[in-house]
Amino acid sequence: MRSDVSFTPAPMSAAPLGASAPSADRRVGPFSGRAHRRRYLLILVGLIVASLALVVLVLTWGNSQIPFTERWWRVSRMRSESLIVIALVTLCQSFATVSFQTVTGNRILSPSIMGFESLYILIQTAVVFFFGISGLAEIDGFAQFVIQAAGMVVFAVLLYSWLFSGRLGNLHVMLLVGIIIGAGLGALSAFMQRMLDPNEFDVLRARMFGNVGNANTEYLWFVIPVCAGAAGGIWLLSRRLDAVALGRDISTSLGVGHKRQVMFTLTLVTVLMAMSTSLVGPMTFLGFLVATLAYAVTDTYSHRRILPVAWLLGFVILGGAYFLLRHVLPMVDTVTIIVELIGGLVFLIVVLRRGRL
User: Which of 22, 143, 248, 285 is 20 to 30 A from 259, comparing alpha carbons?
Assistant: First the structure.
């Protein structure tokens, strides 16, 4: 005799006997609940609005021409190119730093620890040392830009391949070797700088600090697609970075080739850092600053949520400093110096609070 009573099994998520039922607002995913998701969306929209407002301010401040006319664009051409440079630099610094900190498992480190900036300074110093100011003017061009960017990439990739190929090779040894090589390159640069003529040293010193105004916008046709390709690669691999952040054993058990993923990510980070450093010069703490702020405001493990916020934060910080110190205060040459000073202070605060590196 068939019964008309149906049986509905208990859901798999039911709490065990004696345990309190989970909150209905709690979810499994990049956000802990609806309030967390709303807060993230508000932050993202706020940063987008701030970035657009900053673009409008930079393009229109002090420009008395009718907007979007030929004369208006003629006045705003240099400003628009500076905005593109700022967007590229912050894209490179933010994506590279967040990815580098993920694969190294340390939110204190930054890609500059691998000696990219020391290699850039050495190349600039060697050109002035061997060829003089006239040689720097002759060599300065697209060829030098490509050569020094390619030199940074080849240097880093060879370092990664050499240290990871050995049986005992690991990430910590690679970082230590990178620090030592960077210190050695810096010492060699300092030795050559002491032998320069004072006038040559003054010219060289202007290139040793990151400066948006030093960027050669004639190379943007090359830099934009390279940066977009490298940053796009990191974005497509962001879900794998979520697994890599869990550690070698867990990521391997999840089916992610940890070593291959780390190598590929470090290569993309190298390309981004080479483009940024070759375009505007060394910027040690910008990436660390925006990455640290992005972790704090997003409060999530998802790289697809962290990366865009880090980029927007970098654009607002560097672009805001550029606007204030160029159009409001006559101190345009100190833009990156002040940003680096703030980033250095944040670095010290983070280290002192944690009590370790």
Answer: 285
User: Does position 23 have pLDDT exceeding 90, yes or no?
Assistant: no
Q: Considering the entire predicted model, what is its pTM?
A: 0.82
For the chain, the domain total comes to 1
Residue corresponding to tokens 């796009």: 232
Min mean pLDDT across 102-116, 248-262, 289-303 is at 102-116
**Separation between Cα atoms, residue 215 and residue 276, nearest integer Å:** 10
Per this entry, what is the length of the chain? Answer: 357
CA distance 116 to 126: 15
Contacts of 348-353 with C-beta under 8 Å, sequence gap 24+, read 350/107, 350/108, 350/292, 351/108
What's the domain range around 329?
Answer: 67-354
Q: Which has the closest alpha carbon to 124: 211, 186, 181, 183?
A: 186
Taking the C-alpha atoms of residue 4 and residue 326, their distance in angstroms, rounded to an integer, is 80
**Dihedral angle of Cα 166, 169, 173, 177, to the nearest 10 degrees:** 20
How far apart (Å, rounded) are the C-alpha atoms in residues 111 and 100?
Answer: 6
Q: With contact defined as beta carbons under 8 Å apart, do 100 and 110 qualify?
A: yes
Say which residue the tokens 């240097």 belong to.
155
Distance CA 128, CA 120 (A): 13
Q: How far is 89 from 315, CA to CA, in rounded Å?
A: 9
Mean pLDDT of 203-213: 72
- Dmax over CA atoms of the chain, in Å, equals 106
| 12 assigned to some structural domain | no
Token couple for 155? 């240097």
Q: Are the CB atoms for 266 and 103 separated by under 8 Å?
A: yes
Look up tokens 């600090």; give the residue.
209
Q: What is the mean pLDDT of residues 69-74?
A: 75
Percent of the chain with pLDDT over 90: 20
In a domain, residue 303? The reply is yes
Structure tokens that stand for 104 in this block: 């190294």
Give 313's contacts (C-beta < 8 A, 6+ positions apart): 47, 94, 290, 293, 294, 297
